[in-house]
Amino acid sequence: MGIPLASESRLASLKGRTPTIATLCSHSSLQIFHGARARGFPTLGVCVGPPPRFYDAFPLARPDRFLSVPRAKDLVSVGDQLRDAGAVLIPTGSFVEYVGADAFGSLDVPVFGNRAVLGWEADRKKEREWLDSAGVPMPRRYDDPSEVDGPVIVKYYGAKGGKGFYLAKNRAALDEFTPTGPYVIQEYVLGTRYYMHFFYSPLADRGYRVGHGSLELLGMDRRDEANIDELYKLGAQEELLRAGIRPTFVVTGNVPVVLRESLLPAAFDVAARIIERSIELFGGMVGPFCVEGIMTEELEFKVFEISTRIVAGTNLFISGSPYSDFVEPGLSTGKRIAQEIERGQGEGRLNEVLS
Ligand code: AMP
User: Fold this and answer.
1) What was the pLDDT predicted at 26?
2) Does the CB atom of residue 304 touch ligand 1 within 6 A?
3) Is CATH 3.30.470.20 the right assignment for the domain spanning 12-135+191-225+255-352?
């Protein structure tokens, strides 16, 4: 038996019924509904305003029904309706960004995974504490701007899609920056970015064993980030600035990538450390998560961020990936989530995968 994350009262709304898989109508909702439907679960989409029409274009990924709220953060006021529907909420980046980790954490509706983890993602200082203490290599952090001795990136808290990030080539450029919210200053690492989609199952009893369960790698992507990814066309950051354009890391899309096979052991090692430490710190991160880092020319992987739930890059792989096909042909992260809930229910262990 693993670690219980949910009390009996939290799961009372699911007693004796098939859970309804629910999420906010954005981010990776098509994949989540598609995976849930494929495993025979009823589905519910929480939408802001009227149901979005684009679902009509995707019949296999359309939720069975919608629950409309005026704003995403009003999700916290429809707890009764979600419980009545027997909902299990699948957290996405939209929950962190639009609902807020605190409000989401106190919602009395069963959530897939350990809800405590979102608070660790939302606060970059806490996230750093977790990764540092797990022995994961990270870009250097500068507590005091006077220590800056090379290129740095200034990052705001939360999953803001890279909006408003500031790149400074040196200390002088950093002095020109006026922050508009809580931020951290990090070494700007030169290398190639990889976003690795892992899944930790506390229920699995075979495979790459970590904690009481197993670690799976379901896919990998790189993000297209406007306008920084097009910077090379202008030659240099100064060119953009001269044109009055501030370079940004706003994500506009995702492209599939694979890692050199010889680097996979290091990738698994980093992910396993993150899980093992999460078990010690807060009972474990369960389900999908993404390790986001930069491979340097010395083949050192520096992790700049982790997402503690499904990431939108998994949308590339709804019919499998070069990694998940070795786990089960055609396996998406959305389907994997539904499988885990199915297994938890079948084995009477939902309290280990829901919180
Ligand atoms: P994050 O919000 O931490 O995911 O960062 C957004 C984007 O900024 C990433 O996708 C990277 O392109 C870039 N980035 C973040 N941290 C670093 C770093 N330490 N060095 C270089 N690029 C970074």
Assistant:
1) 94
2) yes
3) yes
